Amino acid sequence: MYVDIVNLIRDTANAVNPNGTFFFGRVSDATLSLGDKPFPQIHLYPFSVAPPDQRFSLDVTDNIRLVFYLQDSPNTSDTDRETIINDADILQRAFRAELDQTSAEYSKYLATPFFKEHNGITSGMVVTFALKNKSNPCD
To answer: Of 18, 41, 61, 68, most Cβ neighbours within 10 A?
Structure first.
């Protein structure tokens, strides 16, 4: 079920980023949390889910999009920005390693850096992947 996937991603994000922020919702809503919630922030955006396969009880989605936001500044040097991107990469790799410990299966995992978004106050990584999550279709 949809909520099972959200909970899986939330639990995984909170395990690797216990002092940061997890956000689930629209991009426009998420940007409101950038100024007043602790960094790093992991944002999960809405996704589509195919109905569960009745034999295997799998929810399948092929459009998970997570954004790993780290604090940046409009005046950051190139060297500092490389450090921020490296820290975002470490965080997304920790997320992936934690996801490996669950019953979910994923593929097409792709991490792409971004620089100085939202008026230059964030940089980080955008991660996309396809996910199969075991769920109970009767819930």
So the answer is: 68
